[in-house]
Specification:
There is one protein chain. With 494 residues, the chain is mostly helical. The chain has a single domain, classed as Amino acid/polyamine transporter I, CATH 1.20.1740.10. It is built from 19 helices and two strands. It has a two-stranded antiparallel sheet with strand order 1-2. A hairpin with a 4-residue loop joins strand 1 and strand 2. It is globular, with a radius of gyration of 22 Å. The chain starts with a helix and ends with a helix.
Length: 494
């Protein structure tokens, strides 16, 4: 097992050399092309988050912008925020936090563009919309082979590998809270029981479709995120005198000025970028699968919402974890530490009750990530085949890998996740570079309407020569001026 983990880690290292260049380069390129839309449009991000949903062909309310946001947040806000950040700090020192922040600032542009494209090339279904990178590769680039490759990889990555990561983290957290040595041979019954529980809960939701998934994430994700952030702020307040020194460690450690671990600047840089991307998923091609399900009046709106999701995830939730760990004087260099490092840090600061609270938080974060990850795979199974039989087989395999993740070693799971994430991100980033000019045209169309004082709506004919669209034909009531005139009357602004 150790040799397999080492081999996967070595392969991942080589792949990541390419991803680093593409990730940063694409983020900077899109920042320039969009005139830093991710920095200058924060007010607009919050404004469109509360837009009302449209109506699906079956007469039920569509998935709103906010619901789509919570589905993508469910996938983002998981073990990457708690276990992943702890691992990054352990291996890369405080400086890794700086590079996580940096990749979020740059990645917001990538998140915007990929979500705009996901919306633009989404397809109509009997019960709503569906789409994602596989669709804009196929219909925007006329490269179905690329879409198929991406769909296969994201289905494996999120449905199987990443879900193994989530169940692994749940076991790690529960064993730490209950003082059970999860590495001991006698711990296997415990792992099997926890795995079975996660499987049952997952099955009850994923067999209910997109609406049930979005309903669960809308209820759970905001609540747990708020409680977790409040807990982190309490730790910061209790250690307010140490905060300036902590910030200094983060900045100085980022550039190798103050050494904490072996590996120097590049080690810190790599850990920060890897965990930042794993956490916020900007540019990976995951969030557009959720964003495409939303019924909105203009594709740019979901771009704004998903950019906000990057900041919510990295600058808020990940920062809370980092502060909790760093204010507890952690030991650097131990790769075996995951969520348990954050738990022990909280226990040191606030007592045993905080450890148990974090256990519950990790369980809920990881569980919602499981169903969010499943949703990404489901969207791409629809792309590959409309067969109900295939979909049910996929669902069963997801449950199998959730159980497997509960009993395998942490190092192997994280190594697999790193490799698959790198491959998937590379394919998507190449597509973003090709389709960026179209996304920029959509953004300009939106901003021109806002300057005229209008609520932006979109029709495929608004951009001459645009082909491959299915949804933007004026039949969705939310894309009409009449809908927004009525909406203004409802809120008393007309």
């Amino acid at each position: 097992m150790e040799q397999l983990t080492e081999a996967i880690g070595t392969a991942g290292g080589w792949i990541w050399n390419v991803v680093f260049v593409l990730l940063v380069g694409t983020g900077l390129y899109l920042t320039i092309r969009t005139k830093a839309v991710q920095w200058r449009s924060l007010p607009e991000m919050f404004r469109v988050l509360g837009d009302p949903p449209g109506e699906d062909p079956d007469g039920k309310k569509s998935i709103s912008s906010f619901r789509a946001f919570t589905v993508s947040a469910a996938s983002r806000v998981g073990t990457g925020n708690i276990a992943g950040v702890a691992i990054a700090i352990s291996l890369g020192g405080p400086g890794a936090v700086f590079w996580m922040w940096s990749i979020a600032a740059i990645g917001g542009a990538s998140a915007f563009v990929e979500s705009v494209l996901g919306q633009l090339y989404k397809r109509k279904g009997h019960t709503g919309y569906y789409g994602g990178p596989a669709y804009y590769m196929t219909h925007g680039m006329n490269a179905r082979w690329m879409g198929v490759l991406f769909a296969v990889i994201i289905t494996i990555t999120y449905g199987f590998v990443f879900n193994s990561v989530q169940s692994n983290a749940i076991v790690d957290a529960l064993s730490s809270s209950l003082e059970i040595d999860s590495t001991a041979a006698g711990a296997m019954p415990f792992k099997l029981i926890v795995g079975a529980l996660i499987v049952v809960l997952t099955a009850a939701i994923i067999f209910g479709g997109a609406r049930r998934i979005s309903a669960v994430t809308q209820a759970v994700v905001p609540l747990m995120a708020i409680l977790y952030v409040l807990l982190g702020l309490l730790v910061v307040i209790l250690n307010i005198g140490q905060v300036p020194g902590m910030i200094a460690d983060i900045v100085l450690g980022a550039f190798g000025i103050r050494e904490f671990v072996v590996g120097g600047f590049m080690g810190v840089f790599i850990q920060g970028l890897k965990r930042g991307l794993f956490s916020n998923e900007a540019g990976m091609g995951s969030a557009p699968n959720a964003g495409a399900s939303a019924s909105v009046s203009h594709p740019a709106k979901q771009g704004y919402v998903q950019s906000l999701g990057v900041y919510f995830d990295t600058w808020l939730v990940c920062s809370v974890t980092a502060f909790i760990v760093l204010l507890s004087n952690p030991t650097f260099g131990d790769s075996a530490q995951g969520a348990s490092l954050t738990q022990s840090a909280l226990g040191e600061q606030l007592g045993t009750w905080a450890v148990h609270f974090l256990t519950v938080a990790i369980f809920l974060f990881a569980f919602t990530s499981v169903i969010g990850n499943y949703f990404y795979g489901e969207s791409n199974i629809l792309f590959l085949t409309g067969s109900r039989t295939v979909m049910n087989v996929y669902r069963l395999l997801v449950l199998v890998f959730v159980m497997i993740g509960a009993v395998v070693a942490l190092d192997l799971v994280w190594s697999l996740a790193d490799v698959m994430m790198a491959i998937m991100a590379t394919i998507n980033l190449i597509a973003l570079l090709f389709l960026a000019p179209i996304a920029v045209k959509v953004l300009r169309n939106y901003e021109a309407q806002r300057r005229r004082g209008e609520e932006p709506t979109f029709n495929g004919s608004d951009i001459p020569g645009l082909t491959g669209l299915d949804a933007w034909d004026g039949t969705d009531v939310i894309t009409t001026g009449a809908f927004w005139t009525q909406q203004m009357k409802r809120v008393g602004k007309a």
